[in-house]
Amino acid sequence: MPLPPESGRELDQAVQNAAVEHRRAARAAEIAIRHEAQMETATEEMRGFHGRMAAVHRQVEQQHRTAARIHSVHADRLRRWHEGSVDPQVQPRFMAAVAETLGAAGAALTLFGPDEAETLAAASDPASRTAQGLEFTLGEGPARETVRLCRPIIAAGMQMAQIWPIYGPAVEQLGIRAVAAVPVAAAGARLGALTIFDPPRAHGPDLETFQAAAVTLAVSLLPPWSAPDADQPVGRPPFLEQGDPCAVVNQAAGMVSVQCRCSAADALALIRAHAFAENRPVDDVAAAIIDRTLRLN
C-alpha cells in the first residue's frame, strides 16, 4: 500500500528539524564553553556573571538536545513506517516520540483556553489518550494541577488517589502506576501541560528533561516555526496535525448553557457528570447533545 506524499514530507521535516536543533545546541555549548573559560581569569565580580551566563547556555543546550532527540526519534519511527517494518495502518505519532525520548510508557499534551477549557489534546497511544480523556471528563488530574500551580507535579501509587480521589483510581485501572506533569508555557503565557505516564523511576523523575520537552512543544507553537530560514524548524508542528480539537465539547457546553440557563463552566460540569455517570467518553456525550439525541436538564 503506497504511503501518501504528506508522510514523506513529514519525514523530511523531522530530519531537518533534528538538524536545526543539533546546530542550536552546538552554538549554545560553544557560548557556555567561552564563559566557563573566562571564569578562570575573570575578576571576582565578573566571575559570577560568567558563571550565570554559562549556566543559562548549558540549560539552553539541554533544551535543544532534547528537541533534537525528539525529532530524531520521530524521524526514525517514520522511516521504519515507510520501510514497512511496522503496521502501515498506524502512522507514528509525534507524541509517541516524546514518550520514547523521555523513557516513559506514554505522554500527552493538553492545551487550555479561557476558564481552563481544553482546546487541543494530543497523546502518544490509546492508553494515554484514555487517561487524558478521564481528566477531561472528571475535571481533575495532573494537567490541570500543573497549570493551576505553575509547577511540576509528580505522583505515584497511593499518592495518585490521595491527590485525585476519582482520577487516581481510574488511571490505575488502565495500568498506569505513576504520572508526572509540567507546564507548557511560551512568552510568559500558560498554554497547557505535558503529562508523562509511567516515567522512569529508577533514579527519580528527570524533571529537567521533562521541562526541556515541554519547552520544545511550546516553542513549536510560536510563529517562527513556519519561517523558511535554514536555522528555523520547518512545517507545522506535528502534534497540531495529529491532535484532537475539543471544539465539539465546547459547542455542546454552549448548547447546554443556553438550555439550562447556566454558565459555560457549569454546563461543562454537567456534561462531565453525565459522561461519568453513564461511563461514556465525554466526546460521545457532547456529540449526542449536538445531534439533539440527548438533552441535559
Describe this structure in words.
With 297 residues, this protein is α+β, with helices and mostly antiparallel strands. The protein folds into three domains: 5-83; 106-212, 2-Layer Sandwich (Beta-Lactamase); 247-290. The chain contains twelve helices and six strands. The protein has a six-stranded antiparallel β-sheet with strand order 3-4-5-1-2-6, sandwiched between helices. Strand 1 (106-112) and strand 2 form a beta hairpin. Helix 2 (44-83) crosses helix 3 (94-102), helix 2 (44-83) packs across helix 8 (207-220) and helix 10 (247-260) packs across helix 11. The longest helix is centred in the N-terminal third of the chain and has 40 residues, at 44-83.
Question: Summarize this, please?
Answer:
The protein is α+β, with helices and mostly antiparallel strands. The chain contains twelve helices and six strands.
- Residues in helices, as a percent range: 55-70%
Number of helices: 12
Strand percentage lies at 5-15%
CA-atom Rg in angstroms = 21 Å
Placed side by side, the strands forming the largest sheet appear as: 3-4-5-1-2-6
* Helix-strand makeup class: alpha+beta
Q: Look at the structure and give the CATH class of the largest domain.
A: Alpha Beta
How far is the first residue's CA from the last residue's CA? 49 Å
CATH architecture of the largest domain: 2-Layer Sandwich
Sheet with most strands:
6 strands, antiparallel
CATH topology of the largest domain: Beta-Lactamase
